[in-house]
Amino acid sequence: MRLARQHAYISNARNDFLHKLSKAIIDENQVVVVEDINVKDLLKTRLAKSIADSGWSKFLTYLKCKAGGYGRTFIQVDRFFPSSKLCHRCGYKNEDFVLNERKWCCPACGETHDRDVNASINLYYVGLGRLKRGTVEQALVTNRSYPATK
Ligand SMILES: [Zn+2]
C-alpha cells in the first residue's frame, strides 16, 4: 500500500512538473517548434528508462493542447528533417554526421556546430519560416497550423 502511494506521489509530481513547464513555455512564446521524435523507437534503446521517466510524449501532448488553448502556433517538424545535419549558417547538409557525435565543422563555411545548438537554430528558422532556399522543402513541416481554424 505504501509502495502504491509512493508511485502515485511520483506520478503526480511528474505530471505537475510537465504541466507547469509546458504552461511556462506557452506563456513565454507565441510560436513553439518541436521535433517529432519517435519516442517508441527511443524506448527500445539504452535510454529507455530515462525517456519513460521524463514523460516526453505526455509533455508534447500538454504543449500541443496548451498551444491550442492559448492561441499559440505549435509546429511539429517531421522527424526526418535533418535539424542537426544542416549547417544553420550556410545550409550545407552533413550526410556523414552520426548520432553519437556532438560537434562538427562545416566544410562549406567553416562554422563549428554543437549538435543541439545547431538543431535548435534550424528549428527556430523553421518556426520563422526562414530556412535557406532549398531547405524549406526538407522541413516537411507537419501540423503547421495549430490550433485548427474554427
Ligand atoms: Zn556552413
Task: Please give the oligomerization state of what you see.
Answer: single chain
Our estimate of the beta-strand percent is 5-15%
Rg result: 18 Å
Ligand inventory reads:
zinc ion
Task: Give the low-confidence spans.
Answer: 133-150
Helix content: 40-55%
Question: Count of DSSP E strands?
Answer: 5
Strand order of the largest sheet: 1-2-5
Envelope shape: globular
Can you write the helix and strand succession as a string? Answer: HEHHHEEEHHE
Ends: how far apart?
Answer: 47 Å
- Tell me the structural class: alpha+beta
Number of helices: 6
Mean pLDDT: 82
Largest sheet: 3 strands, mixed
Q: What features would you describe in this structure?
A:
With 150 residues, the chain is an alpha+beta fold. The chain has helices spanning 2-28, 39-42, 48-54, 56-69, 115-128, 136-139; strands at residues 31-35, 73-77, 103-105, 112-114, 141-142. Strands 1-2-5 form a 3-stranded mixed β-sheet, sandwiched between helices. A two-stranded antiparallel sheet has the order 3-4. Strand 3 and strand 4 (112-114) form a beta hairpin. Helix 1 (2-28) packs across helix 4. 18% of the residues are buried. Residues 133-150 have low confidence and may be disordered. Zinc ion binds at residues 87, 89-90, 92, 106, 108-109, 111.
